[in-house]
Write a structure and sequence with these properties.
By secondary structure, the chain is of the alpha/beta class. Helix content is 36%, strand content 13%. The structure holds NADP nicotinamide-adenine-dinucleotide phosphate (NAP) and glyoxylic acid (GLV).
Length: 326
């Protein structure tokens, strides 16, 4: 029998089968809830490999208590839940699953943009509450997206897929703020790299697609919302902590921006009492960006193959820090 793998949640079958066929001893969960920190440590101490995801807080303490681990395989592209620096210090490689959910997540960003622009979630609630009395020529009108300007914050895989959708469907002008220039987006979509203030001032829709890092945490705050157009839509499918949720709520209340579409919130889960859920121009989803059968199956397979490849030949197809393996 090879190493013991702890699955922290109930994951799609594909990767589990691949691990079992390769001879790994796999501990599966039956109740699909995140472990408490002490449970996670106690369970991880009985295993060699952690197969985990973004709802598992694998911080410095957890890693120090589980420094025997031989691999942390993240079932997600974002890995801000893991203290990668500490894992690296302890000699534990961390792998992840980039690309598997690019199209699925861009679909959610695109869908939220349309839903918020037409107040769709609010209109749906109107039917449920019996408030659909008649056709109204003037009530609760939305805004159109054709020929508007899309501002992408963090133009990576998902940002590019969102930009392609907006260009194709609405001929939107694309501007972006990222650390490096993106020649493919510039050539293919006519995208223009701008500074942060220009992104805020010129965009009709701002869509967030950056990783959550110390540099991007809380970047969309009061000061940023004040610079945006009062007709602008704010879309976040990246991580909730890239925006300041209190400031976002105040900005929407004060009419500093027009609406918002969120697949990620801060905290998660969002409280059912959040004032954002009562706002007409806001659409919120419970972090389902990668939630298609295709994406989740692929993520499960990639996580399993990252583990197997590491123990077979010392290589990880998708390592967070490939330089550590050399
Ligand atoms: P990616 O290809 O690595 O793209 C992320 C982009 O963020 C990179 O291109 C990077 O730009 C940019 N970035 C990083 N730090 C930045 C900074 N300080 N300022 C501006 N831009 C910065 O990753 P991806 O596959 O598109 O995924 C992006 C993120 O989406 C993930 O990290 C995850 O948090 C989130 N996500 C959410 C869901 C969901 O279910 N809602 C699903 C998947 C992913 P440069 O290339 O210029 O460095
Ligand atoms: C989902 O949020 C991911 O990072 O894959």
């Amino acid at each position: 029998m090879k190493q013991k793998v702890l699955l922290t949640r109930v994951y799609p079958d594909k990767g589990i089968q691949i691990l079992k066929e390769a001879g790994y001893e796999v501990t599966e969960r039956t109740d699909d809830r995140p472990f408490e920190q002490d449970e996670l440590i106690a369970e991880a101490q009985k295993h060699d490999i952690l197969f985990c995801t973004l709802s598992d807080k694998i911080d410095k303490h957890v890693i120090q208590q589980c420094s025997h681990l031989e691999h942390i395989a993240q079932f997600a592209v974002g890995y801000d839940n893991i203290d990668v620096e500490e894992a690296t210090k302890q000699g534990i490689p961390v792998s992840y699953t980039p690309g598997a959910m690019t199209e699925a997540t861009a679909d959610v960003a695109f869908g939220l943009m349309i839903a918020a622009s037409r107040k769709m979630f609010f209109q749906h609630k109107n039917i449920l509450s019996g408030n659909w009395k008649t056709f109204s020529p003037t009530a609760d009108l939305g805004i159109e997206l054709k020929n508007k300007t899309l501002g992408i914050f963090g133009l990576g895989r998902i940002g590019m897929a969102m930009a392609e959708r907006c260009k194709g469907a609405y001929n939107m002008d694309i501007i972006y703020y990222s650390r490096s220039a993106k020649p493919e987006a510039e050539q293919k979509l006519g995208a223009r790299k701008v500074d942060f203030d220009t992104l805020l001032q010129e965009s009709d829709v701002i869509s967030l697609h950056t990783a959550l890092t110390p540099e991007t945490k809380g970047v969309f705050d009061k000061r940023a919302f004040e610079k945006m157009k009062s007709t602008a839509l704010f879309i976040n499918t990246a991580r909730g902590a890239v925006h300041n949720e209190k400031d976002l709520t105040e900005a929407l209340k004060a009419g500093l921006i027009w609406g918002a579409g969120l697949d990620v919130t801060d905290p998660e889960p969002m409280s059912p009492d959040s004032p954002l859920l009562q706002m007409k121009n806001v659409a919120v989803l419970p972090h389902i960006g990668s939630g298609t059968i295709e994406a989740r199956t692929k993520m499960s397979e990639m996580a399993a193959r990252n583990i197997i490849s590491y123990f077979d030949n010392g290589e990880i197809p998708f390592a967070v820090k490939p330089e550590v393996l050399k």
